[in-house]
Amino acid sequence: MVFKRLLGMGGVPLEIDTVVPSEPALPGGLLHGELILRAPDRRIEVKSIWLRLVTDAPVAHKGDGDGSSGDTFDYPSVSGHFTLEKGEEKRLPIRHRLKWETPLTEVKGQQLGVRLGIHTEVEAEGVKAQTDDDPVYIGALPLHEAVLDAFAAEGYALRTSRVHNGNIPRTEYHVYRAQGFLLVDEQSGQNRPEELELHFHTNAVGCEIFLRKAKLGERWWKDKPPARRFVAAHHEVGRVDFAEAVRRWIDEVGLADGSHPTSDHED
Question: For residue 187, what are the CA distances in angstroms to 49, 54, 153, 155, 246?
Fold first, then answer.
């Protein structure tokens, strides 16, 4: 454990550590962890505790204070307002149901270059500060893996991913983020797109899958190439031949210039 020492007015100290397992959680699943607080020198009244899940979490600690780093997309809850006696240590469990649209940080152990973190903000007797960024790891659901495996079988390798602020137009969303996956054709010369951009819009039933010619660096949906929309359900994993579906999807993207009309702002 690595405790951070927060100092309030008059040098009132509070030590805190947020512990999150290194094993990846899953979208729609539970994020477990523990918040540990200590009052090393004197009695302290803790007034409130806030946890924030953020994207673009920095690698290095930015220092205590009221500043923030990363873009918040979810708020796990933890109990607050209690008193720590001098020398007392208190452990608070973190048990948070992740939203289905929570961005992925890895697929089958492959790191995607996406950084998620959890920030802890405490207010206690003049102490108001946030801890270091504690990394949070989110793995792929079986449906995500099945679809990506089918693309890999067709020669499209997963290279990287990016998360942008925003949503996919005309979809029901609970996280104002859109995550794109870059798929690169390793079987060039077959008269098909060299790079594809894939989006999973996931819910409890399955995924809306959006596929287009890649423009991963473009932030806004309307500025990207036209997208085709497909659907797949969680229960179809192991029952549906996604290889056949993916071949059809690739052909449609390669041949079609129009898009599924998800928004009046789309091309």
Answer: 52, 37, 11, 6, 15
User: 197: which strand partners?
Assistant: 182, 212
CA distance 138 to 211: 22
- Residue 6 CA to residue 124 CA, distance in Å, equals 10
* CA dist., res. 6 & res. 61, Å (int): 13
Strand 30-38 and strand 89-97: the pairing is antiparallel
Q: Could you give the CA distance from residue 223 to residue 7 in angstroms, rounded to a whole number?
A: 46
Distance CA 230, CA 251 (A): 13
Phi and psi at 38, nearest 5°, equal: -135, 145
Q: What single DSSP character describes residue 120?
A: E
CA-to-CA distance for 76 and 167, rounded, in angstroms?
21
Give the percent of the chain with pLDDT over 90: 55
- Model pTM score: 0.86
Query: What is the token pair recorded at 2?
Result: 């690595």
Entry field: residues in the chain: 267
For tokens 């539970």, the residue is: 30
CA distance 120 to 50: 6
In this predicted model, what pLDDT tens digit does every residue of 50-94 receive, in sequence order? 899 999 754 433 344 444 567 899 999 887 789 999 999 999 999
The three-class DSSP label of residue 229 is strand
The answer to whether the CB of 66 falls within 8 A of the CB of 129 is yes
- The span from the CA of 233 to the CA of 207, in Å, is 6
Backbone angles phi, psi at 212, to 5 degrees: -155, 170
Do 72 and 53 meet the contact criterion of CB atoms below 8 Å apart?
A: yes
Contact present, 101 and 28 (Cβ < 8 Å): no
